[in-house]
Amino acid sequence: MDKSAIATIRNNPGRVLTITVMTIIAGIQMFPLIWLIDFSLCNSNELFTNGILVWPKKIQWVNYVLAFTNGNFLHYLKNSLLINTLAVVLVLVISIMAAFACSRMEWKLKHAASILMVMGMMIPVHATLLPNYVIYDKLGITDTIWALLIPYVAFSLPQGFFLTTSFMSSIPKELEEAALIDGCGIYRILTIIIFPLMKSSIVTVSIMTYLNNWNEFMLAITYLSSKKWKTLPFAILEFTGQYSSNYAVQFAVMALSAAPALIIYIILNKHITKGVALGAVKG
Amino acid sequence: MHKLYSNKKVIFSLMAPGLFVFAAAILAPILLSVYYGFTDYSGIGKSSFIGLDNYKTLFQDSVFWTALRNSLFLAIGFICIQHPLAMLTAIKLDKLQGKAEGLFRCIFFIPNVISVAVIAYLWKFIYNPNFGLVAKVLKNLGFTGQLNLLGSGNAIWSVLAVLIWHGFGWGMLIYYTGVKNIDPVMYEAASIDGANGRDIFFHITLPLMKPVIQVNVTMAVIAALKQMETVYLLTAGGPGNETQFMASYLYKQAFQSYKYGYGNSISVMFIVICLISTVALNRIFAERGE
User: Which of A3, A61, A156, B188 has its C-alpha lying 20 to 30 A from B260's C-alpha?
Assistant: First the structure.
């Protein structure tokens, strides 16, 4: 596009209108969060003033200090990171293995097996909440990392499998054939040839799995009783009880818990939006 | 070479972890749910087999129907309010080009990366009749009465508003991907033929967006059926059982009313309804697509 074309687009009144409307929508999407941050820096009493947003008389960093120290924030963050990373790695490894078997290898039941694996996508995770409680109780794994890791992996696997299968079918078979002639086994082909070629689908599956599980708390509330493995949402759930009248500190806890995902999103936003678009349209 | 690709041992070793996870974490609990659904187990102590009694109770349980109606309400709300807005935004955004396009796309998606726990508590504050954002805005507009947005009659609308706000970016992003996939040559050809903006939208954009619309509608219905976490923290299904959904209701029955057996029968119905809806939607779209 040459410069004059750009100039005509820039001077187009329609463009000004579009930008105005987009700004209003962006405002609606962002305003609750701005409101949250604003009051997290205030004194609780300032919440009851008339202004929609207030300029705090003195910025109350102490809210964040309290949230950080009394909210077990780092402990919960560490658990969230560990559990979600493990879930992502397991989902990736298991789905790539199964996708290879179903899309490349020759066996009679492969179509039935793929359908079975994808079926999980239709099952609502909360429908397994009650029976899994009994199973985990019998196995003695309630209140352990397994009680979260097993369902997180299981319910992200169908989508992971579906996405890796569809990506794998776009990899040309010739590459593997060359490796086979050189005497490579299936496992080596998977690790040396297929795995590096799956980069974009690995990113997509990781993002979808993270988004699915990072915010999850119903399973966590049900299966965990002690602090040991509780995840980030508990920082908020516990704090609202503990500081029920100190609203400003609650706002600080919320802002703080939202921060890690938000920061990662801002850094990786292109990959994330691309990953979600790919994942959702294919899935 | 062919032999290597049909080696049973290798196939088994590759499939075993996936199938094991499926069987242990999805299939086994479902079967157990079916079993408990036939009992009057309370969560502790002994239980007895009561046949189809739970299901008979369930079909006469008005809360169960409320839950289904709420899911339908959300689905219609998503499809009639959220999606047209998201689609128009996506189409306009696509025409914006340049830095602004990327910036707005980034901002619209932000609520999606914020944890549901934060969203639910935040909106509880926003709806607070004393110091909430909505109350303040209304006050500044001159409205003086008390408005309890989480009260009877209003609560389900308030839940819908939160979910529309929260999921807007996701829907927008998928429509946006759909718009991006339309070949610009189509638009050029149409404008040469003298088509105006409306013609282009109804005769080019909309028909070519059909696949993404189908994906989004299916996801909206499923999300409406599966709704639990936002409602659990925002209204806890209340007031009364007005904003109850299947998932929150089965949870309540099992862990608050100690009707574990009954809760499981709701779980079973929940799965059946999700399966039927997904299959039905795919059928409808497959027929239309031909």
Answer: A156
Q: State the Cα–Cα distance between residues B234 and B177, nearest whole angstrom.
A: 32
B128 — pLDDT class (breaks 50, 70, 90) = confident
- pLDDT band for A158, please (50, 70, 90 cuts): very high
Q: State the Cα–Cα distance between residues A268 and A275, nearest whole angstrom.
A: 10
Q: What distance in Å separates the CA atoms of residue B66 and residue B246, rounded to the nearest whole number? A: 9
Give the residue-averaged pLDDT of A198-205.
Answer: 88
Task: Output the pLDDT for position A150.
Answer: 93
Task: State the nearest Cα–Cα gap between A227 and chain B, in angstroms.
Answer: 17
Phi, psi (5° rounding) for residue B39? -120, 170
Whether A94 and B21 lie within 8 Å, measured CB to CB: yes
How much is the pLDDT for A1?
Answer: 44
Taking residues A200-220, what's their average pLDDT? 88
Res. B82 pLDDT band, cuts 50 70 90: very high
Q: Residue B181: how many CB atoms within 10 A of its CB?
A: 12
- Is B29's CB within 8 Å of A128's CB? yes
Q: Cα–Cα distances in Å, from A276 out to A207, A217, A271, B175, B196?
A: 7, 21, 9, 12, 33
At B49, phi and psi to the nearest 5? -80, 125
C-alpha span between B227 and B69 (Å, rounded) = 12
Distance from CA of A146 to the nearest CA of B (A): 11
H or E segment and range at residue B120:
helix B116-126
Q: Provide the 3-class DSSP secondary structure of residue A134.
A: helix
Q: For residue A3, is pLDDT > 70?
A: no
Closest CA to A37 of A49, A53, A48, A50: A53
Cβ distance A247 to B125 less than 8 Å, yes or no, reads yes
| Tokens 């706000």 sit on residue | B165
Q: Residue for token digits 């999921």?
A: B167
Given CB atoms, is B158 within the 8 Å cutoff of chain A? no
- For chains A and B, CB pairs below 8 A equal 270
User: Which residues in chain A have their CB less than 8 angstroms from residue B137's CB?
Assistant: 52
Which of these, B111, B220, B113, B115, lies nearest to B175 by C-alpha position? Answer: B220
- Assess B128–A contact: CB distance below 8 Å, yes or no: no
